[in-house]
Task: inverse folding
């Protein structure tokens, strides 16, 4: 015969196991019903210290297929490389906005800008920007031209620009714009001028 205290203890343990199972089942259902909120995948960047300066951003307009100069006031650090990164981040912030004239996917960001003297800049964009970029000759070329012109207008001495994605060379941005070669700043500026003249 099983002692009475073993039967009571076993019953209590069985009830506890059943209660825990029911609670876990309930929480699993609640977790599945909770909507997943998409978050900004860009890394958190430390606040920029520096005086606010007026910069010129060359903003792409898909409807007319051109770039237009637009001024902005942003905090600019003293270090040349950080200045290059911040001016391009200000440009990308315009494109990520819902009312943008040339939209880029959420999470688009500049990972880094490397200034290699003499006159070479390497822009490293994140995968979210490249993978979610709209495919098309004009929209891709406008993105590249916008980055190149904005960078060269605000960081003197840049003659050529190379674009990487997550530190790796890709063949194209989203199927059309060739990323295997260097972009000549004067050629990009001349193309932008021609596009504006053809409006």
Result:
């Amino acid at each position: 015969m099983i002692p009475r205290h073993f039967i009571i203890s076993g019953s209590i343990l069985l009830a506890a196991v059943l209660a825990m199972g029911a609670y876990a089942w309930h929480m699993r259902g609640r977790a599945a019903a909770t909507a997943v909120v998409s978050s900004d995948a860009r890394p958190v960047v430390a606040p920029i210290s520096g005086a606010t300066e007026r910069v010129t951003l060359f903003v792409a307009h898909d409807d007319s297929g051109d770039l237009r100069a637009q001024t902005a006031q942003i905090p600019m650090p003293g270090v040349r490389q950080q200045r290059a990164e911040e001016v391009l981040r200000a440009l990308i912030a315009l494109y990520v906005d819902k009312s943008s004239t040339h939209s880029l996917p959420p999470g688009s960001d500049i990972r880094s800008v490397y200034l290699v003297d003499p006159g070479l800049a390497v822009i490293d964009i994140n995968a979210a920007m490249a993978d979610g970029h709209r495919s098309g000759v004009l929209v891709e070329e406008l993105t590249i031209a916008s980055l190149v012109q904005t960078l060269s207008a605000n960081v003197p001495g840049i003659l050529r620009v190379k674009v990487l994605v997550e530190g790796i060379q890709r063949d194209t941005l989203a199927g059309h714009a060739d990323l295997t070669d260097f972009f000549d700043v004067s050629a990009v500026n001349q193309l932008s001028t021609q596009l504006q003249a053809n409006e």
